[in-house]
Design brief:
The longest helix has 137 residues. The protein has two helices and no strands. By secondary structure, it is an all-alpha fold.
Length: 159
């Protein structure tokens, strides 16, 4: 049993919580590794992530401002387009009225010309009719005179 306390002492020294020089060395290694990883890996990665976030934010801001401008331009162009359509419809309506007025004036002129031609033709026909009647009256008169003369000469021959 003499060896028993010595064995117990050795077991107690090498137990679960042995705070000799390895624990501070492990802590120093952990902190050194943490600092090295932070400077070598994490800072560049976070820098790249921050730059990417900033790029996305600026791109998103630019895109939203462009979208607002595009919406404003679309509204302006739609208003201009509706105004142009209204003006075009008004011009079309006024042109149609103007064309109708011109056509109605042309029709009136054509009717007046036709009436004038008809009046002139009827005057000419009346003149020709009167001339024909006068000629016929003269011929009838000469024929009747000839008939009278023949009748008288035939009666004077009979008597």
């Amino acid at each position: 049993m003499i060896y028993l306390p010595f064995l117990l002492a050795e077991e107690i020294e090498g137990g679960l919580f042995d705070f000799n020089g390895t624990l501070p060395l492990m802590a120093l290694q952990f902190l050194t590794l943490m600092v090295l990883l932070n400077t070598i890996f994490y800072k560049p990665v976070t820098k790249v992530l921050d730059e990417r976030d900033e790029y996305i934010r600026t791109t998103l801001t630019t895109a939203s401002s462009m979208l607002v401008k595009a919406d404003e331009l679309a509204e302006k162009y739609e208003a201009d387009l509706s105004e142009a359509r209204r003006n075009a419809q008004l011009k079309i309506a006024s042109s149609q009225k103007e064309a109708q007025n011109i056509v109605s004036e042309d029709i009136k002129k054509a009717q007046l010309n036709a009436e004038k031609l008809i009046a002139d033709a009827s005057k000419q026909l009346n003149i020709q009719k009167e001339d024909a009647l006068k000629t016929l009256e003269n011929q009838v008169d000469t024929l009747s005179d000839q008939i009278k003369a023949k009748l008288l000469s035939s009666q004077s021959l009979k008597s």
